[in-house]
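Q: Sequence in, structure out?
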Amino acid sequence: MPPARAPRRAGRRIRTVTGLAITQVGRLLATEAVVTAVTGSVVGAAAGLGLAASAFGLSGRVAAVAAAAAAGGITVAVTATITVLACTSGRPLAAVLAADE
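A: Exactly. Output:
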């Protein structure tokens, strides 16, 4: 019997257990992370706007500060997500998790 060969990356797509290519799983996780970050920032800004409106009344200044807070939150969350994805891309999940311990 010939020895077992490692799967080739060139010319053939490596598939996960789910049938998705590894690149597709990476894209899915990146999209999920960015959507979660943006959603959290928008919900946080909406909650802040509601609290500020009840405390100070709804004015143009309060709405502008809430919009700036939402933009800042989205920027920070997306930057953090992209940084993590850039630092861990191409590494096996077990290696990434082991490095965190």
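The chain has a mean pLDDT of 74.
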